[in-house]
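Notes to self after the Tuesday call (sharing in case useful).
The group wants a holo model before anyone commits to mutagenesis around the pocket. I volunteered. Ligand is zinc ion. Logging inputs and output together so the record is complete.
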Amino acid sequence: MSLLIKNGEIVTAGGRYFADIYCEDEQITAIGKDLDFDADEVIDATGKFVFPGFIDPHVHIYLPFMGTFSKDDYASASRAALVGGTTTLIEMCCPSRAEEPLEALQLWNSKAEGLSACDYTFHMGVTRFDELAESQLRTIVADYGITSFKVFLAYKGAFGIDDAELYATLKLAKELDVVVTAHCENADLVAQTQAALVAEGKVGPEWHEPSRPVTVEAEGCHHFMTFAEMTGAEVYVVHTSCQPAVEAIVAARGRGVKATIETVIPYLVLDSSYTERPDFEGAKYVMSPPIRAKEHQDFLWKKLADGTIDTVGTDHAPFDFSTQKHMGHPDPNKAVNADFSPRGEAADFTLIPNGVPSVEDRVNLLYTYGVTTGKIDLQTFVATASTNAAKRFGLFPRKGDISVGADADLVIYDPAYTGIISAETHLMNTDYSGFEGMEIKGRPACVTVRGQIAAKEGQFTGTLGRGKLLKR
Ligand code: DUC
Ligand code: ZN
Ligand code: ZN
Ligand code: ZN
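Result:
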């Protein structure tokens, strides 16, 4: 199979220029002006950008969480990712404390293998640290090519580890040259604040944000940075939502900590007014850390533009509104149990499964609300949505770049397209969209995965099961 892409404007993190791209089998084999090769398929990219395939460094696809399971599988998630221009997924493998790490990784991988249409890898969740876990983590790094861990400072009891385990995890990561990603919120402070709000009768979704204020996230970041500083491990803070959190990490960088900063697309295009929407609509936007006030959103865009924030992921965590999110409804007549039968008593926001489905929309939203508004330039767009994650997680230059020898994961992007996001047309397996009604200006006209056309104009055309586990 060969593919020739003609007359497009190639945009990478490093530059932009007009050239043709020739792909043979799974790789890019030539880039140049007026390439004149015979190809099985020729794509005219006149008037379009050609970007490296986008990488989502933070998704949840299989996620047992808060008494329920996330709604996507690798068929729905990879189809959605691909029509939206994302060609590589990095999923959080999140075992419970009772599970052994190796069995958990095999379980998570079994959900992807043979089903995913795009390539994928995992961040290995470290949700316990003992002798057995340590030896299995060593195997996971060496044999599965998983070179990143994930820890939760939040969600104690489910995934969270204590400080002794955190210290041991970071020491092991330093020894193995593994980067540790972390969800940074102080779990005990969250629990205390939640309990106080609920006791005061503050039970609706609008109280989710006040229950996890910015200062609690900043403390989590400072806490994690202290451990990074003490151990010398390289770290990555996931879904940074606000100014104090970013500032805590930047301060640690000043002390020599090697820290990468991720934000996620909901924080860039939604603000806390969404969680305040009436009739329980706010539950659609409940995720953690919470979606913040507009001033934090403005700050995040500035820090993306100036290079302080390195990556934009999604924290894609898909739960249905009509059933799953209703597990936290304060009206006894509308609250449901985990099997979605009437609960018979009032619930509160602490029972709303956390997450906003967004793997399909990240690239188009970042382009529309970042690039077309002038908040970020095209290079920053490519760097933060693809290249920087590829570099940080050991995938570069195979992924995240357009260069000879790289995988032919390409996004031919149509900046003239306009459309409206809606759950009625999205491919994610949820009954709502957090971005319902939002306009997008631009979308992928054609997406390739290792030389095969996997999406065209919003339609999935790829092959389920062709995606590979990327050894790093
Ligand atoms: N936050 C969410 O909102 N959902 C999944 C896990 C997380 O950390
Ligand atoms: Zn998280
Ligand atoms: Zn602390
Ligand atoms: Zn997450």
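Two things stood out.
The mean pLDDT is 98.
Residues 58, 60, 92, 315 surround zinc ion (ligand 4) (CB under 6 Å).
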